[in-house]
Here is the input.
Amino acid sequence: MPTTALTQTCDRLATELSRRGFTGRITHPGEPGYEDARRVWNGAVDRRPARIARPRATADVAAAIGLARDRELPLAVRGGGHSAAGHSTCDDGLVIDLSQLRRVAVDPSTRQARAGGGALLADLDQATQAHGLVVPAGQVSHTGVGGLTLGGGIGYLSRQLGLTIDSLTGAQLVTAAGETVHASADVNPDLFWALRGGGGNFGVVTEFQFALHRAGPVVTAGVLAYPYQRAGEVLRASRAVMEHVPQELSIHEILLTVPDHEPFPAELHGTRAVFLVPVHTGGHDQARADLAPLRELGPVFDLVGPMPYLALQSMIDDDTRAGLGHYGRSHWLAGYGDELIDTLVEKFEQVSSPLSHLITARMGGAVQRVPDHATAFRHRSAANLLWIIGLWPDPHADSSPHRAWVDEVFEATRHHSSGGVYVNALADEGPGRIRSAYGQDTYARLVRAKDHWDPANLFKLNQNIPPSR
Here is the structure.
C-alpha cells in the first residue's frame, strides 16, 4: 500500500477507534515507537500491522474487536508476543496488544490468583512466590501467560502439579460479538472446556483465574552436564531414573552447544554436550537420593542444588531472548527407546546453528491423572515430548539450513510419535496438523464451540479451528 494511502487508512482507523470509546494507546506506521511495538519475540517474523492498539481496560478490547469485525480487518492478539509462528502480529491489520493488562492479584488465604491477559510469567511468578505459591507454567519468564495457558502450558512442574490449564478455574474474555463473558466450570462450561487447550480461537481473554499450589521459594534444581561422547549413555541413564522416581522429580534432557557465558566453564564453550535439568520439589535428602545415579555418572559440571524458584524460571531467559530467528516442531512420543535416543544423538551432530537444540521432557505424573476428555488438551497419555528447536542469531539471514535441520530431525523421529503435536509448538503446518493436535472427537467439540462463540472466524490468526459453516 502506498505510504500516503496507508497513513490515511491509519488515521481513519484511529479516529474510529476513538469514536468507539477506545481509551488506550494507538500506534501507527511512521510514528516513533512503531518499529519497536511491531516486533515480536521471533525475529524472523517481520510484519507491519496498520494499527497497534494497547487497551487499558476490557472495554477498550471490545472497541478494538468491534472495529476489526466491522471493517473486516485482519486481527491478531498479542500477550507476550512469543508465538513462534508469528500469530501475535499481522500485515495491514489490527493488533490488540495486551501489554497494559499485566496486573496480577493474589489472595493467599484462598490460594487464588487473577492475572491480566497481558501478564508475563515473570509477573505471575513474582506475585505468587511472594506467598510461597505457584501456578505451574512455562520455563521462560518473558513468555505471555495467555498464549501459554490457552495452548495447555507445559513447564518444569508439569509432572508435579499438572499443566497450566489444570490450575485454571475461570476466565473473563471478550467475544467476537464484543460481549464480555465469564467462563468456568459452572458458567459457560463449554467455553471453559475449549479455553483449556483450544488456543485463542474463542475470544480475547482479559483475565485468567488460577488455583495456586505450595512450592518454593526454593527448589532443588539446576544443570548436570556431560560430554557429548557420552550422550547416549547419559540419556539412557536419565530414562532409567525417571522410570522409578516419584513425581516430585522432573528431568528435561537437552542436546545443545554449550553457551559461551557463565556459569559454564570456558573450556566447554562452543562444544556439544548433553544437559540434564532436574527439578525436585521434595525434601533435600529425597532429592539427593533420587539424583544420586546421575551424579555417579560423573558430570563435567554439577550446578544442581537449592535454587530460588524465580531463578529457575528465568534461567534460560537470555538464551531464548527476543530477536533471534526461530523455527521449531514437536512430537508427542509413545516412548523413549534406544533407537530414538541414537537418532537424536546422531542428528544433533549435524545441527546447523550453535543456538539450536533438542529437548525431551517427561510427561506422566499429574499430567496423566486428568482425563483426556476433561479439557481440550488431548495428549495426556504421551510418555514424552520432543521439541526440535532451531535458533539462529541473525533473523534476517538465510533460514533454510536451520529449517531443513529441524525438518530432517522431525521426519527421522516421526515413527516414534504417538500422534499429534503440542499446540504451543505448532508451526505453520496446515489444518491437518492442527487437527492432529486434538484428535477427531476433541476437534469436533472445538468446532461446535467455535460455531457458537466465533461463527465468522474473526479469531483466525492463531492455531485456527474454523467453524463448520
